[in-house]
Amino acid sequence: MDRLSINLPKLQLIDFDGNPKNWFSFWSMFQKIDEDPKIEDDVKFAYLMQTTKGKAFDFVQSYHVSKGEYKTVIKNLKTRFADDKMLIELYVRELLKLILNQSHNMSFTDLVDQLDTYLRCLENLGVTKEKYACMLYPLVEASIPEQILIAWERERNSISRNSTANTHDLDLLIQFLRSEVVSAERLRIAKAFCAGEKDKNKTSRQKTDPSRDLSSVTPVPTASSFVTQTKSERRESNIFCLFCSKKNSPQ
Known about the structure:
Elements (H helix, E strand, L loop, with lengths): L22 H12 L6 H10 L3 H8 L5 H15 L2 H17 L7 H17 L4 H15 L2 H17 L6 H40 L14 H6 L2 H6 L2 E2 L6 E2 L3
Antiparallel strand pairs: 1-2
């Protein structure tokens, strides 16, 4: 069987604006160009000019476009915007910011996603959970909502009693938070399904039993409604008489 030919869309390189938080997403794509031996250095320099903006573009533009300058500009670009110590401090501060802002309106799913992102970035910088778990664990624990924290304490006590594996609490906490996100997503889908079925049943009942539609029910006149109507309104309205069951126009 012949393989189907699929025209994949061209990948769009991510621009780097000089914000250190955006370095990893930029470099993960541009690194393929940087390490490709088939691409000349002056062409790599041109790609670098096209994929930088703001402060990063001004920095790159200050160098002369040539083969010899490319390696220098890449080295200095990393020193300026992607220094390991600076990035580690940045992501630790981001973790602290989550702790300080935990009372703000952030969904639990977004919170776990951000925690996961910052911990992965720190691990890429050499701040591994094995070496720095004792420092990172209190930060992560302090950032999660109180109800989730109580559930985690019960889970951790249960794991401690039933397991002999040498797994650090930070790994267990991250696994627990991920499972809670999955559970929350399942609950959201179930609630959305139940709400949709309830609306369907309500619409179906109204179609099969038109008498349930109150808008089609003829109003029964009362003394108060007769008094509050103006004379012209009483002439124009046709009200069923309670005695003869016919329409009468009151004078």
